[in-house]
Amino acid sequence: MQKSLNNPVAAVIEDFSNTLRFMARCGCKGYDPSERTYRILEDWASAKSGCRSETLEQIRNDLGDCRRCKLWKGRTNIVFGTGNPDAQLVFVGEGPGYDEDRQGEPFVGRAGQLLTKIIEAMKLSRDQIYICNVIKCRPPENRNPQPDEIKACFPFLKRQLDSISPDFICALGSVAANALLEKEVFISRVRGRFFDYKGIKVMPTYHPAYLLRNPVKKKDVWEDVQKIMKIMDP
Ligand code: SF4
Question: Which of 47, 89, 96, 186 has its CA 20 to 30 A from that of 23?
């Protein structure tokens, strides 16, 4: 957490968080000393400061012509993310494919067209939500991102989510679910249930590319997104 010099309330929350960390190091008990506690405090601090910690544009500028992992070598474009910076719902995928790499936009290929249909079936448009990925450069041959690549790129997704501060995240596929739930999961076991990411409700479901290969699973995804729709503000 960064010291909030311009906001006394955020500064007090930050001091409190630092005190809790100190107490945890001293072996004090009687409270939850996990990272979740500090993340909630961090959220409070930014909410109390009454403004975003940073804008998506600032995060994109910071990313720059990124070479923080080896995927930069094969990319045509960095695929940062698109949509509403105040979205109530963010879809997080795995990483760019061929079409996304060419166009610099997430979910524009066949899987993207299917995602658009899902969004429209939810009575939403792509302008109303935000779409991004765990990694922002296309892996060779569309292979799964490797742990070092996720480690390098995930902080930027975290910052995007902090900036947008949505109520819901729909994690598309196991790479997104693993990253956001911070553990190895089988998507078939976690889909359809809400999890917590820094106070945001996370609904894992199948990736649209998987649905193209297994259309019978579309029904499951429809059930999952309906759970979001039921409690989302109209
Ligand atoms: S995948 Fe992410 S960390 Fe790696 S080069 Fe691309 S933008 Fe940078």
Answer: 47
Q: Among 60, 61, 71, which residue has the most ligand 1 atoms within 8 Å of its CB, making it the best to mutate?
A: 71
H/E element, 90: strand 89-93
Distance (Å) from CA 189 to ligand 1 centroid: 29
**CA 78 to ligand 1 center in whole angstroms:** 8
**Cβ-contact 138, 98 below 8 angstroms:** yes
Reference 212, options 81, 111, 123; nearest CA is 111
Spell out the domains of the chain, with CATH numbers in brackets: 8-48 (no CATH), 61-231 (3.40.470.10)
Q: From the alpha carbon of 66, which atom of ligand 1 is closest?
A: 8
Contact 114, 212 (CB under 8 A): yes
Q: How far is the CA of 63 from the centre of ligand 1 (A)?
A: 8
> pLDDT digit string (tens) for 114-151?
999 999 999 999 999 999 999 999 999 999 999 999 99
pTM of structure: 0.80
Question: Could you read off the pLDDT of 84-108 as tens digits, one per residue?
Answer: 999 999 999 999 999 999 999 999 9
- As a whole number of angstroms, the distance between CA 125 and CA 152 comes to 31
Kindly state the helix (H) or strand (E) to which residue 180 belongs, with its residue range: helix 174-181
